[in-house]
Amino acid sequence: RFLQRFYCIQKVLFPTWSNQNVLMFGTLLGVTLFEQLVIYQVGVIPSKFYEVLAGQDLEAFKTLLLFAGLLIVLNSMLKSLDQFICSVMYVSWRKSLTEWLHTFYFQSRVYYTLNVLREDLDNPDQRISQDTERLCKQMSTMASRLILSPFTLAYYTYQCFRSTGWVGPTSIFGYFVVGTVVNKILMGPIVSTLFDQEKLEGNFRFKHMQIRVNAESVAFYSRAGKVEHMRTDRRLQELLRTQRSLMNKEFWLYIGVNTFDYVGGFLSYMVIAIPIFTGVYSGLNPAELSALISRNAFVCIYLINCFTQLIDLSTTLSDVAGYTHRIGELMENLSADTAFVLDRLSYKSPFSDDLLVKDLTLKISQGTHVLVVGNTGTGKTSLLRVLNRLWESSSGFIHMTTCFGPRGVLFLPQKPYLTDGTLREQVRPVLIYDPCWTCAFLTVTVVLQSNLLKRTGGLDEKVDWNWYDVLSPGEMQRLCFARLFYLQPKYAVLDEATSALTEEAEGQLYRACKQLGMTLMSLGHRSSLEKHHDVLLKLCGGGRWELITLRP
Fold first, then answer.
1. Is the pLDDT reported for residue 207 higher than 70?
2. SS3 of 529, please?
3. Do residues 20 and 92 make contact, with C-beta atoms less than 8 angstroms apart?
4. Does the pLDDT at position 118 exceed 50?
5. How far is it, in rounded angstroms, from Cα 165 to Cα 178?
6. Is the alpha carbon torsion for 405, 410, 415, 419 positive or negative?
7. How far is Cα 185 from Cα 311, in angstroms, rounded to an integer?
8. Pairing of the two strands 544-549 and 535-541
9. Which residues, 6 or more positions from 485, have their beta carbon under 8 angstroms from its beta carbon?
């Protein structure tokens, strides 16, 4: 789940190869690689000093001292540039992610849905403002270390193997594996606790904002200030309890991280000692051996340091995981375009006191096709009447985030609606003007698949008959689908719309709907409809209902 949500966030931060975030990330990679080359040269300088000082060569010492000074200045500049690019990336990432969230948050009254109708998603404002900022900050601090790790690990592993044989890399890799497993175990409880802490932080901040907005109203009540004081302190105590729990869990993680930091320093000398005491370097004099020990110690220590940095990142990664889950959860609710949100909806016929459906909770979102089934009289068509506001609901809420019509939701009722006029006017509503007449012609000829055009004399031939008397039930349903394909709404609600058609024709029409990007809500009895839908809503009668996932 974490990887999936993290990947979705990265797609927002790096949408295209030419995006400025990608270019900055590539620049950071180049700078950090060059910085590592300089660091290696700085790291082997002490071994050269051993050789020069042991040989008492003053001129070589002066040259080496100047070279070391230049390397230090260059390293400082590269490190500063590295930090500067990370800071710029942090600002750019925050801009990209926040603007993306704003785009979906403020469209189609999604902000109202999340803040008023949704109780399962806490503090969307905090997730957009505070959690986004912290996530981008944490990712920018760990970016340079993460992108360098594959290169530095490969290079210093090779150098360590040349110096110590297979014992050195094997020991260090084993050390890292143990450290990773231990820190993974210690990090697990932190992520969920951090999630809870951020939720309580938002609740505490919201309480103070509530008092600020209603300060005058509170002041008019003599004891309201004391009540709000008590309730605000209660929110604070809940937050502090969670923070203490988080600190207790982080304490053990810090012990693990710091222990592995210090063990790494001793491990480098243990690795170097093996070839020395086994006589591999017995032919070297003390000065050469000192230089070799210094150079090999740097290689081993730096390799261990690379692993240690990865282990140290576990604390940062736990924060990133917590913020990723909160922002990812918000993105999942923002990006899903929703037509209807049903919250504990109950409804009945205006002519009866018996509830058809009780406490129905359902979200109809773009891309999720819903099939409603049930015996006659269980309230299938009645549900459409309630959604279309032809009937009032008994209790609960229906929140509609789109509109009725070609750009929103279009209903195909169980009884096809045909009016007088030409064949074209059956497909294209009179009030909708579209100069592209060819579109209507192609729609009719493809969908009807009959000799209807010949029988009527063409699309615009005026007729004096009743269409209900001329067309068969199957032709009327095809004509309704032709109208649907012409209008191409985002959502199509179909009430027994293919009952007079063969299963083959039904499949062709449903596939065409999906190819045109429509999200379908169908009512029907045929089992063949299930393969075209993702969710099954079964109305059992007596107010009971059941929601079944057909395809995850």
1. yes
2. helix
3. yes
4. yes
5. 21
6. positive
7. 12
8. antiparallel
9. 443, 447, 512, 513, 516
Confidence of residue 414 (pLDDT cuts 50, 70, 90): confident
User: From CA 350, how far away is CA 348, in angstroms rounded?
Assistant: 6
Q: What is the pLDDT of residue 429?
A: 56
pLDDT of residue 50: 74
25 vs 20, 131, 241, 343, 404, CA distance in Å?
Answer: 8, 22, 39, 44, 45
Element (H, E) at 132: helix 132-164
3-class DSSP assignment, residue 360: strand
Identify whether the C-beta of residue 315 lies closer than 8 Å to the C-beta of residue 257: yes
Question: Which pLDDT score is estimated for 440?
Answer: 45
Burial level of 24, CB count in 10 A (0-12/13-18/19+)? Answer: middle
Sequential DSSP letters for 51-91? HHHHHT-HHHHHHHHHHHHHHHHHHHHHHHHHHHHHHHHHH
Is the pLDDT at 471 greater than 90? The verdict is no
What is the SS3 string spanning 260-305? HHHHHHHHHHHHHHHHHHCCCCCCCCHHHHHHHHHHHHHHHHHHHH
pLDDT value for 532: 92
Question: Residue 432: its pLDDT value, please?
Answer: 47
Per the CB < 8 A criterion, the answer to whether 317 and 2 are in contact is no
Sheet containing 355-365: order of strands: 355-365, 338-348, 395-400
Are the C-beta atoms of 523 and 382 separated by less than 8 Å? no
- What the block records as the tokens of 262 is 């210090």
The tens digit of pLDDT for each residue in 312-339 reads 777 688 788 888 988 988 887 775 567 7
User: Which tokens go with 117?
Assistant: 């109708």
Angle of the 132-164 helix axis to the 20-55 helix axis, nearest 10: 40
